Amino acid sequence: MPSNRKTLVVLSAIGVTMLGLGFASDPLYDTFCKVTGYGGTPKIADDNLSEIIDRTVSVEFDSNVAQDLPWDFKPDQRRLQVNLGQSGLAYYTVKNVGDEPLTGVANFNVMPIKAAPFFIKTDCFCFEEQTIQPGAELSLPVIFFVDPQMDEDKRLDDVKTITLSYTFFPTEEGTMPAQKPAKTSGKTTAAATN
Amino acid sequence: MVALPGENISVEPSGYADDDKPKFFQRWFYSTNHKDIGTLYLIFGIISGLIGGFLSYMMRMELAAPGIDVFDSEHQYLVYVSMHGLIMIFFMVMPALIGGFGNWFVPIMIGAPDMAFPRMNNLSFWLLPTALICLLISFVMPGTATEGYDVATNGFGGSWVMYPPLSTTGHPGPAFDFIIIGLLAAGFSSIFGAINFITTILNMRAPGMTIHKMPLFAWSVLVTAFLLLLALPVLAAALFMLFTDRIAGGTGFFDPARGGDPQMFQHLFWFFGHPEVYIMILPAFGIVSHIISTFSKKPIFGYLGMAYAMVAIGVVGFVVWAHHMYTVGMDVNLKAYFLAATLVIAVPTGVKIFSWLATMWGGSIRFSIPMQWALAFIFLFVVGGVTGVMLANAGVDAYLHDTYYVVAHFHYVLSMGAVFGIFAGFYYWFGKMFGVQYNKWLAGAHFWFFFIGVNVIFFPQHFLGLNGMPRRYIDYPEEFAIWNQVSSFGAQITLVGVGFFFAMLFVSLVVQRKKVGDNYWGEGATTLEWTLSSPPPYHQFNTLPRIEDNAEH
């Protein structure tokens, strides 16, 4: 029956399309998160040109290490009080307590998730892989600011604390470059200078 | 009530019974006959149900008292939990409802001689035993360890949701690879089946059988088949990704160390997983509609509303998946959307429930065995639906997430909703499929033990969940002991019910063999299967039936 064959082809095409969409969801989801800051992915910018306004948030620092990486990783300060628009500089210390040199890369996340689009980094150790010799200690800086536009969004009126969290993962040699978040358009920083 | 001598309306020309049935091996192993394949699916479902039921019985015995008594290790308990879920869903409910009753009755109800692609039908069935064997092999394969035979590490214990990293770095052994292969086989079996059903229903309806005259069971299978076709490839993609993630030096789709996101697996899984729950319940809706109508001697109330309510459930079912993941740290606006969309599903579901009630209203109701199962289905499904509405609220779910309340909820809609639908259909069509009627007394005993048993198992689990008992643990503190004990006692009652089911099968099929007529339910049964003999001829509708304009649904 030719009409049966036609239906078969159409239905198979639908099935294959859904299979393809399943695979395509990985790059789509990735792009979506980085562009929108959805799911707590913080954004990065070249420098901070924002106006400093009279509202403060407390930025708390958190650190984690994947279980197969023998590193001690701690923030030097528990929290930092910053005004919106003001750049903050925080340090983390990481020490290799294993017996061989290891390379790791840090992944980051921001809570609450709704604050993530406004939490912008200008410089971070997490943009690069870190190689540490056994017993060596490294001080890792991160420079960030909270976009003053956060003040204009009513949904974020209750945000008094933002937690920045890092997790160090071991890199497999040569397989994985450091996570590169998408850059913001510069629109936010440019607008804030006026 | 039973074995009413039906009137013999001859719709077939003489000589149609010369059916040339093939010999045993060819007939059952090379089968392309939709009724034989349906029977195979039903037998397969019963066997899987026994395996899955055994696993849950062992879990209940372990949980009967605090402490670890039955299992050797926590991991082994989790393996039983995971395999119970996977086997019941993919190898019991789906084969029985869609493969079994779907194959048996969809072609007959729409007046077709067979399925559109009989040989693909054969492939769909035989992929399933292959898949089940893969799953059973995973029991004895190293799971949390990479090698060696040890019950403490064998098998996959990451639950049916298979979230990474537990399913990737957490289970480096080959046990989970066997599950992936098995589920891919089962998934493709269902996709082929779905394509077959859609083509059959769209292209092979008898003259005069318009889509708006099609019986509701055929409607339900049509909607289900579309859900399968759209949802299962996504599961297949997610499983492929897990598979390549698990290879050392492979991909990192879900590995945060390599830029992946484990949360994405949850999105993919539940994009499949939520339609999957409707895949399991919609065919039961169809069956129950026929039974309520037959035993009330009235056509179904609001036929078009019933059909399109199923379509609506299917469509909305694709945009609510994240209500399974409220606790992943989701934006509050997103939660609000998924909450509202989830609550919307209560509307078409309510349309169905009230149409069933309206069908019975003023009807001349007979409480035969299938009707008892169907009424119990409605009652239990409403209980499960109401707790579902509660769980849909993101705020409430933060408290109840992964507690026994959730376990009670989805067992009320599945283990009691879908399974009661299966048994309702089984007793409704028993005489039609096998040519002999069931033993009424044993079937009644099966119903009452089963009905009381499952309620005793699952109702106390609401209390346990509200008190904060989490799921997927082998042990619990003393304060949860009483209701767990009651729940485990329910498992024993249910076991007696299962015993009566097999006694009923033996007595009805082997000992008594009480023959039935064509339309043994009489007046209310109006669909095409009741115009055929019981059991139907090996090849039916050599001359296609014509459906007149005034024919009922």
Give a written overview of the molecule.
The complex is a heterodimer of chains A (194) and B (553). Chain A is an alpha+beta fold and 194 residues long. Chain A contains 2 helices and 10 strands, in the order H-E-E-E-E-E-E-E-E-E-E-H. In chain A, the strands form 2 sheets. Chain A has a 5-stranded mixed sheet, with no helix packed on it. A 5-stranded mixed sheet of chain A has the order 4-2-10-6-8, with no helix packed on it. Chain A is flat, with a radius of gyration of 21 Å. In chain A, 29% of the residues are buried. Chain B has helices spanning 24-29, 34-62, 74-109, 118-138, 175-203, 216-246, 262-296, 303-316, 332-344, 346-360, 369-392, 394-400, 404-428, 430-434, 440-466, 481-512; strands spanning 436-437, 514-515. In chain B, strands 1-2 form a two-stranded antiparallel ribbon. Chain B starts with 23 loop residues before the first helix and ends in a 38-residue tail after the last strand. The model of chain B is unreliable at 1-10 (pLDDT under 50). At the A-B interface, helix 1, strand 6 and strand 10 of A face helix 5, helix 6 and helix 7 of B.
Write the layout of secondary structure elements.
The complex is a heterodimer of chains A (194) and B (553).
Chain A: H1 2-36, E1 43-44, E2 56-65, E3 71-75, E4 79-83, E5 87-96, E6 102-111, E7 119-124, E8 130-132, E9 137-146, E10 161-170, H2 187-193
Parallel strand pairs in A: 1-7, 2-10
Antiparallel strand pairs in A: 2-4, 3-5, 5-9, 6-8, 6-10, 7-9
Chain B: H1 24-29, H2 34-62, H3 74-109, H4 118-138, H5 175-203, H6 216-246, H7 262-296, H8 303-316, H9 332-344, H10 346-360, H11 369-392, H12 394-400, H13 404-428, H14 430-434, E1 436-437, H15 440-466, H16 481-512, E2 514-515
Antiparallel strand pairs in B: 1-2
Helix pairs in contact in B: 2-3, 2-4, 3-4, 3-5, 3-6, 3-7, 3-13, 4-5, 5-6, 6-7, 6-8, 7-10, 7-11, 7-13, 8-10, 11-13, 11-15, 13-15, 15-16
